[in-house]
Specification:
By secondary structure, this protein is an alpha+beta fold. It is built from 15 helices and 16 strands. The strands form 5 sheets. The protein has a 7-stranded antiparallel sheet, sandwiched between helices. A 3-stranded antiparallel sheet has the order 8-10-11, with helices on one face. Strands 1-2 form a two-stranded antiparallel sheet. Its EC number is 2.7.11.1.
Length: 436
């Protein structure tokens, strides 16, 4: 499988990240962000900003688009990846990116490592590979909205998956240990096992079958239904113990269609064991036998529990096509952010904004409109906290212009180091670069 191309990450200066962040902020209420607005948000001169925009476009971190009424830039998946990786590396969560482990309809999985060479799994959500109609049927991040950005939806998917994973892991459910997340990237424990769909032989199918059914019941007793409980989202280790993955589509047992989803999860396991291992059992759980022990769905604002979704019957009826409306205004939901983030990360930073606070004070009155828009967006999400440019620039100055550093581990996985602290630039090189 391929690699995530992070070679250019070490060559980007603080101005490049300021521009990328400015485009990201502008896309919250613009489908195409004009260059003048980007320069205003990034607090850069138009000439220097245009040069950086061309460089980022050359490396496909930004995409230039032009219509009859407006021309400007939008953030690409690669540019969004770079923003997430820069934040995670600045937190010292990861320092290198390895090979791709797997790819799905809505995510990519990579092996990553920190400075201590401890390996993790990084999941990058890629919502938008399927149609918008299919997305609305399986996910409810958009709530009542009809126009959403794929990047925004991917970010919401990562936010919800991390919330579910942490809540379930704290209650001793067999799920990967969550490490951190930023934007659409989720860092989690690297599991030692194989997807159940790849297992051809099993010593005791009855034991594994019983464990899976007990897991479905345990989830329901805590107020949750997986919603996609099948052989592709279950990892089996060498001891035939199962670990559950992929949580963005979880729903509450209070959802109007909860029984249908519960029965579908049960039938998926029954059919798989019947076809693969020729094992059938007359014992299987039913939704009416569920005895709720806790309200985990309420604590983490489970999908489908909100009042809007109870009134929305779109999961049962055909939906009109919205494929032409998938990129537009994407305002942040304060209620959604509070219900998810207060539960597991009240004091931890979620995002990195590379806009210096002192620069905001020196802006002209002509740019005050954009500053107010930026401030309003920041207040609506508690997971957006400012990071001083003094800290980020010091790290960027150390790595700017360094050669790419690649290494291979004992298990054959090759890594590309993002920001190695032990390498330093020669003073002569720095002076020559400053002169140029």
């Amino acid at each position: 499988m391929g690699k995530l191309n992070v070679v250019m990450l070490r060559y980007l200066s603080k101005e490049h990240f300021r521009v990328l962040t400015a485009v990201e902020m502008g896309m919250k209420n613009h489908e195409i962000v004009p260059a003048s607005l980007i320069a205003s948000i990034a607090s850069l001169k138009h000439g220097g900003c245009n040069k950086i925009l061309r460089e980022l476009g050359k490396h496909r971190l930004l995409a230039y688009e032009r219509t009859k009424t407006v021309e400007g830039y939008r953030l690409t998946n690669a540019g969004y990846d770079y923003l997430a990786l820069k934040t995670l590396s600045s937190r010292q969560v990861i320092s290198s990116v390895g090979n791709q482990m797997g790819v799905g309809k809505e995510s990519d999985i990579y092996i990553v490592a920190n400075e201590d060479e401890q390996q993790f799994a990084m999941k990058l959500h890629r919502l938008g590979r399927t149609s918008f109609r299919s997305l609305k049927n399986k996910r409810d991040y958009h709530k009542h909205r009809h126009k959403m950005s794929w990047l925004y939806l991917s970010r919401l998917a990562a936010m919800k998956e991390f919330a579910y994973m942490k809540a379930l892991h704290d209650r001793k459910f067999p799920v990967p240990k969550p490490v951190d997340y930023n934007r659409h990237a989720v860092i989690m424990e690297l599991l030692d096992g194989y997807p159940l769909c790849q297992v051809r032989q099993m010593e005791d199918p009855a034991s594994v079958y019983s464990e899976l059914m007990d897991l479905i019941v345990k989830l329901a007793n805590h107020g949750l239904i997986h919603g996609d409980f099948n052989e592709f989202n279950l990892i089996l280790d060498n001891d035939d113990h199962v670990t559950m993955i992929d949580f963005p589509q979880m729903i509450s047992t209070s959802h109007p269609n909860a029984e249908w989803y519960f029965d579908r999860d049960v039938n998926c396991i029954k059919e798989f064991f019947k076809k693969r291992f020729n094992y059938e059992s007359e014992l299987f759980p039913e939704f009416k036998d569920i005895r709720r022990e806790s309200s985990l769905d309420i604590e983490i604002a489970a999908s489908g529990y909100t009042k809007e979704m109870q009134e929305d019957d779109e999961l049962l009826h055909p939906l009109r096509s919205d494929e032409d409306d998938h990129t537009a205004e994407v305002s942040e939901s304060e209620e959604f952010a509070e219900s998810n983030l207060k539960f597991f990360r009240s004091n931890q930073e979620d995002n990195v904004e590379l806009i210096h606070e002192e620069d905001s004070e020196s802006r002209t009155s002509e740019d005050a409109t954009y500053n107010n828009e930026e401030a309003d967006t920041t207040e609506t999400s508690e997971n957006l906290q400012k990071l001083s440019l003094t800290e980020s620039s010091s790290a960027l100055d150390k790595v700017e212009g360094q050669p790419v550093c690649c290494k291979s581990s004992e298990d054959g996985v090759s890594y590309v180091t993002l920001f190695p602290e032990h390498e330093r630039m020669l003073e002569g090189t720095s002076k020559n670069k400053a002169t140029q």
